[in-house]
């Protein structure tokens, strides 16, 4: 009831607000009412001004006025300003207004929280964040925030995305970057209505971007990433300096040379460690076996702990430090593993990457600091082996969804070099399942299920094995298995830590109502565990490309032993559906009392034209229909 009232108040208040405040109705070519449609938030105005004083210092000034239309926009009423030893917050102010424009509150210093931003996996960081909230309960309401930050880390210039979430509209926003007259600003524009406007004062060149009257943008099902759909400007320096370390971002090679300089002299190991590693790998029959032995040693000896302080955000700790302490962050552990491999005669490369499941690839056409993680690249005779050095359980050579199928920057003595990490196809990401079922005359029965998951499809099970206790694993299985009503009698998992790792899940289930009795007939759906259920909404006109980000192959073989005394009355025909997105086939055979069901579904990864979307919807509808097919048995008359 409270939620309903709040929505009612918002609608009534908006009408009242628009009637009583005609001076705010017009926003260029669109009205505020138009900008409010399908929006939770309207950015009334936003100004970002970044001034470069030198290659080692700059100032960021930010000012915004935001109208919150409903409870789903409340998060925009809280301001977060991160800082550390290389960035100092010089001022923060804020004001809250009601729907009539009356000032309700002005931020006081005591209202601004200043907390540590140290993560739970950190020993020490110098990161902190100032938090100010002006959240209110009567809609719509408006907040204003303004702050200024002085920076001495000039690796990062603004990444401007004025429309940074769905259900958000923008009345007016601008970005201004001021660089010294003798300097150069590098930038990349995407979806901006107007290119940069260039002006100049006595000391600086001024680049200005503006947008206005941006209505809400929402992703379509299976659509491109949000950043592809909205205006965006990336800016970056040519020359920069961090904590006394000077570098260039003009090319990827230049940026790699800067990182290489940070890493110099940090790969020395104690002589006794070198001797231990050489003894460990003395009988290895191949380079890959050496890598696996060293990687296993590293995983057993170390743990991931983040330590970020000043230049330590980019410079790894010495290998000898990690060797003695047994911990390090992604930079330190990758550097340590590189040093250990070097000790046994295996060359490898420190590699910067933008990690994270679902994280978009970097803009390869814009050299800049777009990375959040470090991994290790080990060139082999036929391919490259990638090592995730922060994990104590990951398989050697596996990128997976965290770092796979994207660009990494190899740090070589000659500079940076962009390469692509492993992409996983359908035959890598498999779910191969076999089920044996014995039914009784009530339609219940017992089932033995063996499912082998590989590649990206095994990652969920791998996390369950790694992070959950047995009692929690059983609970997770109950929550995530799709099957007729069941009880788990037994279960176990086995793993293979290969380049394409696998998890095999074995289940013994007691099934209730696996088949339905109606008079003398018995209705059986042989697809027990792999029914497709979701079809995305069909739109009259698709606007964006169809993007499928994962290829996979699912194969089910189900053998069901029927109770005696039944014969087949209806047997579905074999079905096959093919589209640009994938292939599906299913068939059922009956031999005496044995029913054998085969289902195969392979989906492709790729980017497809908008007009193919109807084919995707049709394909999924066909799969749903096929997955629901039943075999009908009739009881023999005695």
Our Rg estimate from Cα atoms comes to 30 Å
- Based on the coordinates given, report the CATH architecture of the largest domain: Sandwich
What is the averaged pLDDT score?
92
CATH top level assignment of the largest domain: Mainly Beta
Describe the sheet with the most strands: 8 strands, mixed
What fraction of the residues are assigned to beta strands by DSSP? 35-45%
Number of domains: 3
- Spatial order of the strands forming the largest sheet: 7-6-11-4-3-13-16-15
CATH topology of the largest domain: Immunoglobulin-like
Structural class: alpha+beta
Q: What is the end-to-end distance? A: 61 Å
Question: Would you report the number of β strands?
Answer: 41
Shape estimate:
globular
Q: What is the topology?
A:
Layout: H1 2-20, E1 26-27, E2 30-31, H2 32-36, E3 41-54, E4 57-68, E5 78-83, E6 87-97, E7 103-106, E8 113-116, E9 122-125, E10 128-133, E11 141-151, E12 159-160, E13 168-180, E14 185-190, E15 197-200, E16 204-214, E17 232-237, E18 239-242, E19 245-248, H3 252-263, H4 271-280, H5 287-301, E20 303-304, E21 306-308, H6 319-325, E22 327-328, H7 330-343, E23 349-353, E24 373-379, E25 384-387, H8 400-403, E26 407-412, E27 415-420, E28 430-439, E29 445-454, H9 459-467, H10 470-480, E30 486-496, E31 502-511, E32 515-518, E33 521-524, E34 546-548, E35 552-561, E36 566-570, E37 575-579, E38 582-591, E39 594-603, E40 606-608, H11 613-627, E41 631-635
InterPro entries: DUF3857 (IPR024618), Papain-like_cys_pep_sf (IPR038765)
Organism: Pontibacter flavimaris
Domain DUF3857: 58-217
